[in-house]
Amino acid sequence: MLVTLLYAGTTTEKPIAELCGEFEKRLGAFCTFKSFCIKEERIDDSKGANDKTVSAALNSEASRFDALIPKDSIKVALCIEGKSFSSEEFASFIESKRLEGASSFCFIIGSSHGLSSDLKNKCDLKLSFSKMTFPHMLFRLMLTEQIYRAFTITAGKKYHK
Fold it and tell me: What digits encode the pLDDT tens for the residues 134-143?
């Protein structure tokens, strides 16, 4: 199984990057895991971020994301208006799609302004961890850990308590 994580903006905090690397390494026991970072579009806040400039930035990011999404992947957009799962429900979602024949998942974390509406609408699932806002670099770690946790739940490992 292939699991791809796409995200906008670099992770500058070394401890977070190291933890992401640790979970990515652990995922190697369950799947082929790949992550790709795209450049976050900068919006000049001194001129005021309006709907038009934000939309243009998100559309530009969406084009770069589209180029990286593996063909025939189950596409999951991370967004605040998405569906919330428990860890067990998330594991069941992945396992049920796998049993239906899915061999590739692609998770997409947008920039500080989110994801374009068009990209979210192309996805098979809109997923929310919370109504709260999280730093994107921290969220990358949280998602990677939850993907790992989902695989350990499905495999009956003791990691999940």
Answer: 888 899 999 9
Domain-located, residue 97 = yes
- Return the SS3 of 112: coil
Listed residue (131, 91, 126, 132) closest to 109, CA to CA: 126
pTM comes to: 0.94
Dihedral of the alpha carbons of 120, 27, 73, 54, in degrees to the nearest 10: 20
Q: Is residue 161 part of a domain?
A: no
List the beta bridge partners of residue 14: none
Range of the domain at 144: 2-155
Say which CATH number the domain at 135 has: 3.40.1280.10
Asked if residue 160 is part of any domain, the answer here is: no
Q: Are 113 and 53 in contact (CB under 8 A)?
A: no
